[in-house]
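#struct-pred
JK: can someone run the complex with zinc ion? inputs below
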Amino acid sequence: MRLILFGPPGVGKGTQAKLLSATLNIPQISTGDLLREAIVKDTELGRAAKAILDGGQLVSDSIMIGIIRDVLKSEQCKNGFILDGFPRTIPQAEGLSFLLAQLGLNIDCVISMEVDETEIIRRLGKRSSCDQCGKIFGIETIKDKTKCPNCGGQLSQRDDDNPDTIRERLLVYARSTEPVKRYYQKIGLLKTVNAQGSIEQVTRDIFVSINHK
Ligand code: ADP
Ligand code: ZN
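RT: done, structure tokens with the ligand placed:
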């Protein structure tokens, strides 16, 4: 199974990708996580990406396509994958189609997760994630705001989840990423899921979409 989870920042792609990954036993490929890892490790990529992420802008298409090329060819993707955060531009979508054609593979389904914008802003301002297990929480749902309810690890907010950067990320989404939906609609791969409901409800709806592809 090869899936793309698509949607604006804060829609819950990461949360759902982790759940789907565990159930379907295929890896979640989050380009945001890969970039943040590179920043923490202070690699050449990380040093180039830091200011871009902090400003809410996009890392260049050629860098991103290069990263995805390596990942898709790797052993971990041999039974499938869930792309989370890629493609984010039309050139990235075209690059991905080209790569997949070279590898003789195809995407099974693109799930577009949709919520209204006020909900997105609310969620992004309040999300925090565990440094240890990676689980994502809405800060208002937990008692001890610093401790992961899942594993006891340290909870922290992402550097780019501040009001100015959130605004910029939403603008970038509308301008560069939203058009990618049409790209997949035209080739008949797009499925839309209402992501406004509970985590469990959204997961169920995604499975319905996958099974009706
Ligand atoms: P979100 O979807 O919540 O904005 P991500 O973790 O997917 O968060 O991405 C965080 C940041 O990483 C983006 O704002 C962007 O700067 C960078 N990034 C992630 N994926 C891509 C991509 N495919 N192309 C360019 N930049 C990316
Ligand atoms: Zn944890």
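RT: quick notes.
The beta strands are 2-6, 28-30, 81-84, 109-114, 127-130, 136-138, 155-156, 190-194.
The first helix runs from residue 13 to 24.
JK: thanks, will look after standup
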